[in-house]
Amino acid sequence: MSRSDVLVDADWVEAHIDDPQVAIVEVDEDTSAYEKNHIRNAIRIDWTKDLQDPVRRDFIDQAGFEKLLSEKGIGNDTTVVLYGGNNNWFASYAFWYFKLYGHSDVRLLDGGRKKWELDSRDLVDAVPSRPATTYKAKPQDESIRAYRDDVVAAINSKNLVDVRSPDEFSGKLLAPAHLPQEQSQRPGHVPSARNIPWSKNANDDGTFKSDDELKALYEDEQVDLAKDTIAYCRIGERSALTWFVLHELLGQENVKNYDGSWTEYGSLVGVPIELGANK
Question: What's the CA gap between 83 and 10, in Å, rounded?
């Protein structure tokens, strides 16, 4: 797999912006950003409402994903290009969802909204519509999703990559500083995890670093890219970006995203937890 299979640049988007076989989709932490402005012809997926089960803490199921994409006008043969703010962290989360349900052609706009705005490219407030489709999803691909028992079993045996900030990893904070701090019962990290903040994967303009730079980043932090790996953060969105880097850009086969992440693990009874910085 090459970068062009999973990443497109802004010139590519502008060249395909009117192509009915391409769906440009904004997925942003700030769900109101789309209403202010967005790339022309881009539609929105609201990660808080569209991708989550309304009752249980879980994803929408296969039927729910089919319904969502059908209503959004995305077909099985549609090229989906995802983008968002904050270096594409929630766009990466949506990318992982699309792969989880087997969509064959999904890509990220390299640099996301940040790079688009730095380039002074046009943004609009008009909301487009796409004709409905009949989308058929595949069953969840369990090879890319980790659960709490997988994480406990991986301690001291597999790569565990904690992609949160150093303050969250050490136990000083329970969540990013701009968010409420009551989202788990205990602070800290999973024993044997390496702290490689998700933001280190990107350049200042929001684009991904080169493959050589990314490989060096993980190897310098003692992550053996030949071993099975589980990435986690707070709710699985930042670790989805790290999963994208390891699995889609660097081609590491056995990489899973733990979407329960610290809000689940930090509230479990009896599991091992450590405090402090990388050792």
Answer: 11
